[in-house]
## 1
Amino acid sequence: MDFNFTEEQTMIRDSLARLIKDQYDFDTRRKVVASKEGWRPKMWAQFAELGLLAAPFSEEDGGLGGGPIDAMVVMEEFGKGLVVEPFLQSVVVGGGFLKRGTEGQKAEHLAPMIAGERVFAFAYAEPKGRYNLADLETTAKKDGAGWKISGHKAVVVGAPWASHLIVTARTAGGRRDTKGIGVFIVAKDAKGVTTRDYPTVDGRRASEVHFDNVSVGADAAIGDAANGLPLIERVTDEAIAALCAEACGAMKVAQTMTVEYSRQRKQFGTPIGKFQVLQHKMVDMFMEAEQSVSMTYMATLKLDEDDVTRKKAASAAKVRIGQAGRFVGQNAIQIHGGMGMTDELAIGHYFKRLTIIDSEFGNVDHHLKRYTDLSAADMAVAAE
Amino acid sequence: MDFNFTEEQTMIRDSLARLIKDQYDFDTRRKVVASKEGWRPKMWAQFAELGLLAAPFSEEDGGLGGGPIDAMVVMEEFGKGLVVEPFLQSVVVGGGFLKRGTEGQKAEHLAPMIAGERVFAFAYAEPKGRYNLADLETTAKKDGAGWKISGHKAVVVGAPWASHLIVTARTAGGRRDTKGIGVFIVAKDAKGVTTRDYPTVDGRRASEVHFDNVSVGADAAIGDAANGLPLIERVTDEAIAALCAEACGAMKVAQTMTVEYSRQRKQFGTPIGKFQVLQHKMVDMFMEAEQSVSMTYMATLKLDEDDVTRKKAASAAKVRIGQAGRFVGQNAIQIHGGMGMTDELAIGHYFKRLTIIDSEFGNVDHHLKRYTDLSAADMAVAAE
Amino acid sequence: MNLDFTPEENAFREEVRAFIRDNYPKELMNMGTREDLSREQFLAWHKILGKKGWSAVAWPKKYGGTGWTSTQRYIWSEENARVDALMPLPFGVSMVGPVIYTFGSEEQKAKHLPGILSGDVWWAQGYSEPGAGSDLASLKTTAVRDGDHYVINGQKTWTTLAQHADWGFFLCRTDPSAKSQEGISFILVNMKTPGIEVRPIKLIDGTHEVNETWLTDVRVPVENLVGKENEGWTYAKFLLAHERSGIAGVARSKRGIERLRDIASSETIDGTPLILNGDFSRKISQLEIDLTALEFTELRTLASEAAGKGPGPESSILKIKGTEIQQRLTELTLEAVGNYGAPYARGMDGHGVNDFGVGPEYSNFAADTYFNMRKTSIYGGSNEIQRNIITKMILGL
Amino acid sequence: MNLDFTPEENAFREEVRAFIRDNYPKELMNMGTREDLSREQFLAWHKILGKKGWSAVAWPKKYGGTGWTSTQRYIWSEENARVDALMPLPFGVSMVGPVIYTFGSEEQKAKHLPGILSGDVWWAQGYSEPGAGSDLASLKTTAVRDGDHYVINGQKTWTTLAQHADWGFFLCRTDPSAKSQEGISFILVNMKTPGIEVRPIKLIDGTHEVNETWLTDVRVPVENLVGKENEGWTYAKFLLAHERSGIAGVARSKRGIERLRDIASSETIDGTPLILNGDFSRKISQLEIDLTALEFTELRTLASEAAGKGPGPESSILKIKGTEIQQRLTELTLEAVGNYGAPYARGMDGHGVNDFGVGPEYSNFAADTYFNMRKTSIYGGSNEIQRNIITKMILGL
């Protein structure tokens, strides 16, 4: 057992932290978020230059030979800086699918993604599907060698910035069947793709994406178009681990910011950090953040174990971090008092990001149920 | 709307409080609980003399013309004094069934119960039935004009002190059917009744009761032997309201005892009641107790409304009070520190009683589900 | 003890229900938790009630109030909650009004009460200052006597909706040598007076609900002093206790639970309505049970108030539990809408409901409302302060 | 970063698993949370381990410990938890032992360490005093030098299982003029010395687990002083940090969850196993998830300790979360057994398991264990004290 980072990972972390400190201070972020674009393509280019986008990929795939731990390191720093650029969407999810694609797909998509030239977003959720990855009304119908895709994908985070979308669609079977699901690469400028772009409450951009008989070639399908759910679940669990790392970064900052604020802010002539009730709340915030880090390590380190172990680990982490994020966020605001409610302080933005993280890729209830169902299946197997 | 007690109710409360203060102090209770009998029949006679056992019955039934509010008043004082005598079992439950019986049953059973000469216990739970009142393996088979009862009733509280049992049994249908359930009066000395008596962790006595082809007459059946569940539910809801009142009494004492202790007990040279964290915990205990009182009033005042309203009210109260009792009990011990763990202080005994109250007549989970199911049924009706 | 309404009370309910049905502006139904409305929208119902004589339900009749019993007021708030009515704002009717008719001069009563009742005059609250928050006694704004005027200098914050205000009531230090809670006065200020600047504070939900108010050499006639100089703290405490007593928000939360049930009936999870999902429906049940406990605690408090006791420290319980429930309600609502909690309605063009066409209409402000409601455990004396009050006043520690 | 065990570690696991399987007393399996066992039962496994050289897993090799790495110790506790083994009591091995080999004289090491290792000598802890609790520095027991002896007078409380003790370690005030935490000494006392009286304290679960210990003119040779006179506070703090580090109890709680799952598989609700009930199974899941978080927090702590840092304030987290989980586990177990939580096993004749024939065997001590485990958030420095420690040492407030 080993909980140390490699030298490369430490280097990535330190140089990214420096970059964010220099070029991603809170005021700059506010301006970017309020801008027409909502992100900085130049920042993305810098991330690429720094090797971040290559970090979690093997050398054969054009990466730096890292893996999920490297993604974790990046995402934690993103969380600390409230970075909005789509590392999760393009690198973790997009890259996660592409690295399991054909050599042709890697050459066409993965290499430019790593170079920062192509940006991916993940169009999986649907208006009525909630958090069930298999609850799909979007269809992909065989059309000669290729496919025709139709449907409506909801809240596709990062889509306004993306050149390409990874789209899940039903190729066979009924709605919510676990079989008959495919994964497709679709260029956003393909004929029949329309998007309605909008900001999200946590400072990012997303789109409603409509596919109207969008034609793609045979090479657009990643993996088994008749049984893509296992791959989708795997990549989604990787995304969950990365998202948990982002939450850890955000929680750590929210917690230390709150302690700092409590040191300076006086009430009744005393710094509020001297009030025992607030002290113990901040201790609880600290413990929640620490346990979230533990869970993120756990889930990340178990990504390559068998399916059930991986799924349980990811769900356990998402549950714990959803709860911790809510606790840390709400109490950070409470201890900041009225100031915590203002747009001008950073703390409210950490709170908002932590709130939305819980709903991404399934909330606490969803993952508590998933964990429980998997445990029951486990027990049934053990009992046989 | 009126939240005042009548003069009679105030008188009952005051004289009962005085009696408990004089003859039911904590040391006396400990001795009684540790004695061979485990209760004081003489105390019971005094309760009868005081009119407590008659209080909740109409004058036609030989009572004092009161109702559930009077039972509530008595039970709250019982809770304050940790009184073990079976008012709930004999008066609220026994009397609750009997007053809905025939005139003959009232004459034979209710009058001597009110006089304190007959004592009833409620044999309803079964080893595998958990909190489902209809989950019965005990059977009552037609035998001429009468019945033959067989089965095993679990944790029949007060049975060692009872002369008679109220027994629920299946007269038709399968296990857990809601129809086909009867309610029977069985003398404890009837042939075929065997009991295994034991103490409970909260200082009372209970029995495992086995019925082996016990013969009873036709007049043993209360109400409709083919469809007794509605009556059982009604009386059980009355018992729940009374039990909630007992819990309120226990919580109030536990809460004020804890405040008192925190005033006297010093740590680091300061009374621990000066530590803000403990202050706020005690505030929360106070609020829990207050809300429990509110819920007890609510449930008691709604006992005579329609079935769904009554059931929802009883379940809501039981949920809230189960949670409050746990919170108050656990924190009372925590704030008392090591002393709270000792048998010699009263506080631990309040904690134990509050713990067991949650499991009587269905715990928090059971009643939260019951409430939810009833709400769903309500909504379905409203939607029609 | 009983829960029965008298025939008169039942008739009263019919009367107010009919009045609301016939008079409440249709276009303002179910907007009760929105904070970014126009002045006209905010005042519409208030003005209608003012004409009817129902705008000040807790005031004595002699000052233009309804003189209703606590049961009537309970019925009134229940009936308004049925349409999620935009009730009269608290600053005039619930806050400064009772201070004026209790402690003010006859001239002040004659001048100010009619505008409060009619809804023609919008009031702002000038209590909090930067760096003070729940600790009102530390305030720094000064009012210095200069002939027939006070000259006020200082800065107030969290002046809710002061962008619309005609008048404000301000706590100012008139005796700088006095101890923290003494030497404070309660002064009425025309917001159009030169030297007042109201600057918006943007909140995390994107609304402009509160402001900073800067006062620079603001000259106010001495007759605008309420009660006695240097005794403003007494009036301030009186006001705060009144403010807390309405804060439980039971009727509104009941309506909120109904709305949540509607949402959970529309949303699906694995093809079945969310409301039929055990986890979620039990969370609603728990919330409703907690609300019932609060409701009956409030009813008991009202009964003891009706029996002659004024709003006491028990109102702190209502504040704590009421706000916890309101917060939990918005939290569950956000949870119910799933992925569509993320789109930021206020960040898009236009501010009407769902004019941006993303997700079901009920999802549009779910996140913003959740964010906004975090304020409730902070303002009006934070919930920590309320617990301190109970510690002292009830537990006696 | 990785979670892999080395081949050596896997071999180690096989070795200890086999040793436990072959040597752990069968009649003591699954008794790990019972508190009313005989001296022989308590010591049985300790003595077997003593012979094997495995009784002191955290001690350095040179003092007779195993010298195992933190990973080996982790494996060791996991394997013991599989049979819910009655581990060596902490008073000798985890508490006084490390103090003696770190601060004691060569004579003290030679005299006391062997008996601690072998399990032949039972130690008692004399820290707490009536009215002191978590505030150890306020202690009043005095040790007055009289020639070659200290004469000890005072009263200790919560001396766990002192009814069996051969030796005790006591904190005594040797300089009455010193400030609260100074002037305290750490003294070893033979419990057979005249003037010592051990009186049982009955706990709410009916057990006799703790005692009051009265010391009246107890004469103890000066060579029983550990380290320097008046510096006992240093050793006491050292001991407390060591005590906390084992307190997470992860392996034991894992076993407890397994046992809870077994119980919930036997119990039925409306005819189906309780374990298939959504509400209950999700509570188990939540507990298991919280335990996983604790486990990985402990692993991270162990890793940083292995990297050279001693047990620091992080151990307070393990104490708080570990005890919360243990308490929640017993709470859920009591909930699982339903009506059969009420019968009071210890109140009946005889103390064997289920010799009173009421309810399933697993229900017999469910309530008592729940009651008993409330102590865990009180002892070893209450969880409030632990939060104070984190406030100071980590948050720096």
Note: The interface with chain D takes residues 1-5, 69, 259, 262-263, 273-274, 276, 279-280, 282-284, 286-287, 290-295, 297-298, 300-302, 316, 319-320, 368-369, 371-372, 375-376, 379 of chain A (CB under 8 Å).
## 2
Amino acid sequence: MSLQVDQRREAYRRMLAIRSFEQALPKRIAAGEIPGSVHSSVGQEATLVGACMALRDDDYITGTHRSHGHPIAKGARLAPLMAELMGRATGVCKGRGGSMHLADRSVGIIGESAIVGAGIPLATGAGLSALVRGTGQVSVAFFGDGAANQGVLYECLNMAAIWKLPVIFLCENNLYAATTPASTTHAQPDIAKRAAGFDIPGVIVDGQDLDAVFEATCVAVKRARRGEGPSLIEAKTYRFDEHAIGIFMPSHYRTADEVEHYRRERDPLALYRMRLLEAGHGEPELAGIEHSVAQAVDDALAFAKGSPHPAPDSIFDFLYSNPIGQQA
Amino acid sequence: MSLQVDQRREAYRRMLAIRSFEQALPKRIAAGEIPGSVHSSVGQEATLVGACMALRDDDYITGTHRSHGHPIAKGARLAPLMAELMGRATGVCKGRGGSMHLADRSVGIIGESAIVGAGIPLATGAGLSALVRGTGQVSVAFFGDGAANQGVLYECLNMAAIWKLPVIFLCENNLYAATTPASTTHAQPDIAKRAAGFDIPGVIVDGQDLDAVFEATCVAVKRARRGEGPSLIEAKTYRFDEHAIGIFMPSHYRTADEVEHYRRERDPLALYRMRLLEAGHGEPELAGIEHSVAQAVDDALAFAKGSPHPAPDSIFDFLYSNPIGQQA
Amino acid sequence: MAELTYLGAILEAEKEEMARDPRVILIGEDIALYSASGALGKLDPKRTWNAPISELGFSGMAVGAAMTGLRPIVDLTIASFVYLACDQIINQAAKIRFMTGGQASVPVVFRMSMWHNGANAAQHSDRPYPMFMNVPGLKVIAPATPADMKGMLKSAIRDDDPVLVFEDNDLWGKKEAVATDPDHLVPIGKAAVRRAGTDVTIVSIAGCLPHADAAVGQLAKEEVSAELIDVRSLVPLDRATILESVARTGRLVVVDYAHRTAGAAAEIAAIVAEEGFATLRAPIQRVTTPDVQIPFSPKLERPLYPNKDRIVAAARRILH
Amino acid sequence: MAELTYLGAILEAEKEEMARDPRVILIGEDIALYSASGALGKLDPKRTWNAPISELGFSGMAVGAAMTGLRPIVDLTIASFVYLACDQIINQAAKIRFMTGGQASVPVVFRMSMWHNGANAAQHSDRPYPMFMNVPGLKVIAPATPADMKGMLKSAIRDDDPVLVFEDNDLWGKKEAVATDPDHLVPIGKAAVRRAGTDVTIVSIAGCLPHADAAVGQLAKEEVSAELIDVRSLVPLDRATILESVARTGRLVVVDYAHRTAGAAAEIAAIVAEEGFATLRAPIQRVTTPDVQIPFSPKLERPLYPNKDRIVAAARRILH
Ligand SMILES: Cc1ncc(C[n+]2csc(CCOP(=O)(O)OP(=O)(O)O)c2C)c(N)n1
Ligand SMILES: Cc1ncc(C[n+]2csc(CCOP(=O)(O)OP(=O)(O)O)c2C)c(N)n1
Ligand SMILES: [Mg+2]
Ligand SMILES: [Mg+2]
């Protein structure tokens, strides 16, 4: 499987949208427009978009605290995401969720969980649900290398395997969990190797290579839709920014050289741009995409800033399906 | 490694003690002397004793709800165990623990947990403790095939591996978890294969063969004491009795033929007795052991029945290291 | 109407709701057992999932399935195992609707039974509903009769929010006539006044009902008219019924099998001390299980729980 | 004495106890960070265990280590992650001493911080101490000043029972003079009377202290003499100090950041409604966070918590 011409454009657009969206944030945080801190997916765009390009619009995904990249990769509109980051009533989660929880249900996201690992069973359950309802949908659980040490992953690998659920376990192995190198917390470096114990295919792909991630995901999706069960894909990737932005974060745990190397040699956007040029997409075409993405981010910022804050007396909204008479 | 002459006698004595202890219980339950229900280890004696014969007296173990076999295999006195089953003040847990919790600290047992899988981290932590204190002790976590599906096992395999903890993960795979066949809840039949993902040796042994279990455990213990880290041993064994005795338990989930086959062909006691005879232990010697074990069980029953119940006003004893002023 | 036990009511509720709504599925350990026994009738294998021992995993899966069109019932069997699933219940099920600004519903039911006087010791004898009462977003019920169990469990299955159902295994054998109309529901959030009275209000939680009822009978012999309220639902809690009763009687005894500190009885006492103080004529009495783990020895265990005598004694203390 | 922040007090307590007792070890995620920063001085690598993200596993390991000669401090970082470890804390740490008839001690400390007003949303903003108060066998503390934090954390580390330490990140920057004597302890189980008063008793829990203190100041301007009690320890709870105070003032306001239902404030209200009723002259007031999940939007979040104005208003309601 490889991407068609217009899919390639869309993939580039989504990767760029993630990058541009993320890069617009630090200034807004500094300006006090975005409260709290954010976790950026810069450096990991090819993994997110490569996987999502292999999905149908109605397929499900769950993400993580690093929650901006997944919805954009799945095709979400930027404005409600940005409004959410600014805590506005027009935000995708009505200002209740914020940076760690940009779950956009309209594109199939059923959770961006800030509890590390906790999105995995949600995605597995969505797979079970698709199977029971016979819809042919698949479900992808995105999770980090750190999350791979949560026991719940193994419980879910096992259940997905015995019940042949249409689930793809997609590990964004960016080599670090906050300040902790995976090399110090993983008995062996390849998370994909942990799949064999549950009789699940476990494959490793270059997470900086959009096509590689796309192809591996296509194989897994096909398998899942055929009723043959789950797969685990480990994408080796890298986070270019600090673990979080907007809160003090030490950086001693990795070398400046290492970061520099990835930024220079392994930038998924630069790599894909080169590939597109080689494939005959001309500079003007790419510049067009770049321009329209920049515009979309600007529009999103303007929409967000122009949106109202949620009303304090709406606080109990969405807690229950019907108000149960809570007291303020 | 193989057992010395007097170790062989001791191994036979302990296996027989488990068997005889367990077999004395149904009558006592029917007579109302033992409250609640019990989980018998009959059929699994070689796994328990084979593993424990490879341990030092001061090595640690944790067990399960099927909690009578572990302390006896580790060398515990029978009387306080039986008194505990009868809820007496002289019981090993002062009548507080009962059948699912026969943890005898005097032989190194730091927990018989009735929460399936929960003993695993306790044993892993005891291994960490031994490492920190530099005592050369090892720690064995006994757990069932059912428990092998609890995520905490994988968290502990990983931590034991990265920190090279002196821990042995010993799975008593008796093919069923209560009424559920492992074949329906395990993605592939060998739990030992799940170890590779954590770079830990995973070996399968015949759990009905005391020598096989002993030898595999010796290898793991040596590795652990040398500072080379954990091992996972899967002993394929079988439970001869129902999941629990003293409470209604359906038996539809396995065939009478299968049970009969194991009882007749794969009885660890019969197999070991034969092996002892072949090795030159004479009938009189074995009969002597058999007689003394029968006597020990009778003594334990008499001790238990003759012991007082705990006083109701002692209820707050042992809750905290010092009373904190609870109210009745 | 048909005679049903409390346990039979659970099965009947599940069977009816599964027949009514193809989105209802069942997941839990060893449940092949009761579906195999025919208790639920003939079922599509895709509707009952006999799970590995992976409470956190399958509880979370039920939440994910609930968000995507199913209405799962999770059978956690014994309440003491719920701690393994706490993260998915508290951080996910309870929070997702709110945190996503209403983008998702989580119509999931978690059932669990609480064991008493069976010599099961500390790891199989908990009554952990108080901790979930402190978690906004969850509903928590503890029906005490077969009719309520059937009607409220059915309401729970039809509810669009996560509902925790606490069952008292003391009551399993209890029998009564129960409505057979498959659309007969008992609403979540309404207490039941089991006996009307004027001198003292006795609020009973979950399986305490038979003891509280016996206590009311005993008090009647002593010419004391006790009003007996069975709360049935802990969240939402029917504050109005409790406050209205105390406004008439001026006296309150709360009876609960759970541990004392920060329990359901504490909440009810606090509500009345706050909103019903003007009408309160005597100290509130909590009759609960003391703050100690449940021992194996029946001689130690049995005296711990609320019973008729302790309830009567508490009422007497504030009547005279 | 030395000036220390609340956060500094935590590090100082750990550093002193680790120096004093070789059995004390530290385990948690990203802790290499603060040991690397030198905050704990030079440490044996066998004393700090930088853990994988495996909360259930390493919490249970700490319990196992505690039973076998160590005194682990588990840093769970943010309190909202404790649900993953609930099974080991509730079913093991709390029960093992009792269930084994005293054969084992479990000297383990679980530390966790509670976040407020940082726009962290529902999955990073819980204050789950109420649920653990309902579990016999645990001790639960929530110190509100640097001096108490240092002295009580040290007591917790030396305690032979499992202690849960709840830290309020609101207070991290708060500074005061703290005893430097490494053997200066603050006992667990004693409340502190922060201000003596005669008209109303204000009981403050955890990080509410600065707000309660400000409220007392405001009330003083209105000629109301409020007594301010900082409970510090939730289990054991210093009932005597609270009851004695209410016996003098006849009025009680309980202030707590945790959710309202079945919370710590409910327990304190219930105790007073039960044992202090005779001296109570007005309805008890709970000033708590309402039963709603914590939203991301600061505009929604900030008004939820108890503050000076809400405390003063509650006091006024029962004074006039
Ligand atoms: C259960 C839980 N434990 C700890 C944390 C704190 N925490 C937030 S992100 C993070 C690191 C996660 O690492 P990884 O899974 O590799 O994802 P990445 O941040 O690298 O994308 C940690 C420890 C948390 N949010 N949830
Ligand atoms: C966490 C938890 N879940 C469920 C149970 C109920 N239960 C008790 S024993 C058991 C089966 C355990 O199977 P396995 O681990 O294979 O041990 P075995 O009984 O075969 O020795 C189950 C499900 C429990 N005690 N704890
Ligand atoms: Mg990572
Ligand atoms: Mg088994």
Note: Chain D has a mean pLDDT of 96.
